[in-house]
Amino acid sequence: MILSIPDIRQEEKTMADSACIAANVARLRLDRRLTQEQLAAKAGISRLALGKIERGAVVPRARTLTALAEALAAPVGELVVPVRSLESVRFRAKAQVHAREQILAMVSKWLDAYAWLETELDDRQPFRFEEAAAHAGSPPDMAQAARRAAGLTAAEPVRNIGGLLEENGVKVLLLETTRDSFFGLSVGKRDGGPAVVVNTWDRISVERWIFTAAHELGHLLLHPSDYRRDATEMRDEPERDADAFAGEFLMPEAAFTEAWDATRGHSLLDGVLKVKRLFGVSYMTVLRRLVETRRETTDVWRAFQGQHRDSFGKTLRKIDEPEALNESEFSWNWRRSGEPAGLTRHDFVEDRLSRLVRRAVEGEHVSLGRAAEILGLSREEMRKQARAWAK
Predict the structure, then answer these.
(1) What is the pLDDT of residue 93?
(2) Which residues pair with 174 in a beta bridge?
(3) Starting from the edge strand earliest in sequence, which strands make up the sheet with 89-93, in order?
(4) Residue 43: closest CA among 61, 56, 27, 57
(5) Is residue 194 reached through a cis peptide bond, with omega within 30 degrees of 0 on the bond before it?
(6) How many other C-beta atoms lie within 10 A of the C-beta of residue 156?
């Protein structure tokens, strides 16, 4: 049988619809950590039927779509709307993350909404760190160039890294996902970036959030050729480079020297806690800097532990090998419960997207429902937030 042009177009549309639904169902099922058997049972269909849907062999009926959406705790629209694939992305995780595709889908939708708002409101921020990236050099040199591009002095602490990145053309997404093996990712300019995404799950310390943001900025500037969707391996050398960049960006050596010298009348414990809060870094970052600059030997780890135990009656970590100070920042499992004098969620926030959304709502560019979708809130949460906006 020879198909007419309308028939061919309808068949192409059906194939596109089935492929879109297949990808969305499989992605959400893996994110929910369900097997095909488990999802099929929850949706009241056979595993064979679900297999055909996930292979794109059939387009499910409306009733089946609704059942699948309910089983996946997702709106039906999330099953039928295609998601733009991100290619210029650097995904960072210590271990395999089953939610990888779901996280990338969420980031893709967020970037598209962000770009639409910027266009609609005619409000774009240039990427001011590009000039720093044009100057080749060591990671600390690149960090100092990036600080100058952001208008920071050589010894000035970064008071608000979220705002600093946003003001200089880097989009910031705080994405809370219950996986402490996933720290964050960054997206290159080709896919709507530059953007930095940070996992803000409350089992990960705020100091870690801040370091992750600086670390990802380091990758954006130092390793632009590494941005590939299929690249999942965390190679040691680029990670160490990004660590060195982040350490110097957040805690410049000149500023650290001045701050540390000012603590000479205090105990090691009090000095470390004072300096860590000044720069918004972990106590481990301060200890590592002391060892790297040969102000202390690796015995500083045990000395700090002993003073903390004497003052607070507990040891911070069960593992106390000084060799840990020579590892990558991201080989440590920093938990908020193990971060003394820790920062709070209010020490790391995103501001710009929230401001754009408020302007769009008040200017009647978007509904409250669409605003809720962009910010990842429920409609009730969005209404509550709108009522709480300061005048």
Answers:
(1) 62
(2) 198
(3) 89-93, 182-187, 195-199, 171-175
(4) 61
(5) yes
(6) 13
pLDDT score of 322: 43
**10-residue averages of pLDDT along the chain (391 residues):** 42 62 89 90 93 89 92 90 89 64 90 95 92 80 93 90 95 85 89 94 89 95 84 75 94 94 93 94 91 90 86 59 48 54 89 94 94 90 91 74
pLDDT value of position 1: 39
Place of tokens 């809130």: 377
Q: Are the CB atoms for 53 and 196 separated by under 8 Å? A: no
How do 171-175 and 89-93 pair as beta strands? unpaired
Assign 3-class secondary structure to 67-98: HHHHHCCCCCHHHHCCCCCCCCEEEEECCCCC
The model's pTM:
0.85
Strands 182-187 and 89-93 come out as antiparallel
Terminal Cα-to-Cα distance of the chain (whole angstroms) = 67
Helix (H) or strand (E) holding 185: strand 182-187
CATH superfamily of 5-80: lambda repressor-like DNA-binding domains (1.10.260.40)
The token pair that represents 329 in the structure block:
């920042």
Looking at the chain, list the stretches that DSSP marks H as alpha helix, in order from N- to C-terminal side: 5-31, 36-43, 47-55, 62-71, 77-80, 100-120, 130-133, 139-149, 161-167, 206-222, 236-250, 253-261, 268-279, 283-292, 300-312, 352-362, 368-375, 379-388
- pLDDT value at residue 12: 42
Which amino acid is present at 91? F
Report how far residue 281's alpha carbon sits from residue 155's, in angstroms, rounded to the nearest whole number: 15
Rounded distance, CA 143 to CA 107, Å?
A: 26
Angle at 328 (CA atoms; ends 207, 289), nearest 5 degrees: 65
Query: Cα Rg for the chain, rounded, in angstroms?
Result: 24
Domain locations along the chain = 5-80, 88-350, 352-388
User: In sequence order, which residues have a C-beta less than 8 Å from that of residue 238 and are 6 or more positions away?
Assistant: 219, 222, 223, 226
